[in-house]
Amino acid sequence: MAEFGTNKTAKLIKSLKEKKYRDKEGLFVVEGERFVGEIMDNCEIEFMVFSESYAALKDVSEYKKAFVFSDKIFKEFSETSNPQGIIAVCRKKTFSIDEVIEKNAGEIYILAEELNDPGNLGTIIRTADASGAAAVILSKGSVDLYNGKVLRSTMGSLFHIPVIENADIKQCIEKLKKSGITVFAAHLKGDRTLYDCNFKNPSAFVIGNEARGLSDETSKICDVLLKIPMPGKAESLNAAVAASVMMYEAVRQRMC
User: Is the pTM of this model over 0.85?
Assistant: First the structure.
């Protein structure tokens, strides 16, 4: 049964807008009916939060731990201009590269080195989910996975696919290679095009920073540097677009 929220709870929810408090508490906020509805059984909900107007119209008694706040205070929690009145405060879940490889041998993996744009990361996670990828792996220095913009961009896919944060990208690439997974990197100096590569076997795709691309150190340990054909005048593709093109070429090949 929902109860009226306290100042202590309100302070906690507000603090989760900042990364340092999300890291400290191990919690993050999911907002909106559709997004909350995407939460899978394997994501632990710490507690639910509702606005008074939402609780007046909906039956919230099914939630064992829930708090109701006035509409005015609820707006202070929200990162949207028109809050729907429902929030889930969730516990972060961690994954290791070893368990992901063990459970998903033969699949597609996405690695991102110091990806900075929230929209790019959210789109990559969403596309990885849609393409049936095994996991998304984020290097140290990447944008925070639980940034509100990232979460909204995933459209709920965060709950469908493992995402490994703060990874040692070199170590992950070495483990993937030892497991028989070919590591392809999108690179402007690639000597093979996307369409000359075989992605029917277990494959990993590495995407670099939006401004700097892949580091030389990472590029050297990848199996193949590939180019995405660009017959137009643009110098490069958006990071999320490049990742999506590679994932769906792998999907296309595996469907043939």
Answer: yes
Going by their DSSP bridges, the two strands 135-139 and 182-186 should be labelled as unpaired
Q: Determine the Cα–Cα distance for residues 93 and 221; give it in Å rounded to an integer.
A: 29
CA dihedral in degrees (28, 157, 245, 144; nearest 10)? Answer: 0
139-146 mean pLDDT: 96
DSSP 25: H
What are the pLDDT digits (tens) for 24-75?
999 999 999 999 988 877 789 999 999 999 999 998 888 889 999 999 999 9
Give the number of other Cβ atoms within 10 Å of residue 108's Cβ. 22
Q: In terms of DSSP H, where are the helices of the chain?
A: 7-15, 19-25, 33-37, 52-57, 71-77, 97-103, 118-130, 148-154, 169-178, 216-221, 239-255
**Tokens at 181, concatenated:** 């997974």
Neighbours of 241 (CB within 10 A): 15
For residues 187 and 207, give the distance between their C-alpha atoms in angstroms, rounded to a whole number.
8
Phi-psi region of 202 (alpha: psi -120 to 50; beta: other; left: phi over 0): beta
Q: How far is Cα 221 from Cα 190, in angstroms, rounded to an integer?
A: 14
Per-residue pLDDT, averaged over 144-167, amounts to 94
* Side-chain-side CA neighbours of residue 34 (13 Å): 8
Q: How far apart are CA 66 and CA 217, in angstroms?
A: 48
Q: Supply 215's token pair.
A: 């580091």
- CA-based nearest residue to 115, from 245, 238, 250, 247: 238
Angle (nearest 5°) at CA 252 between 161 and 156: 25
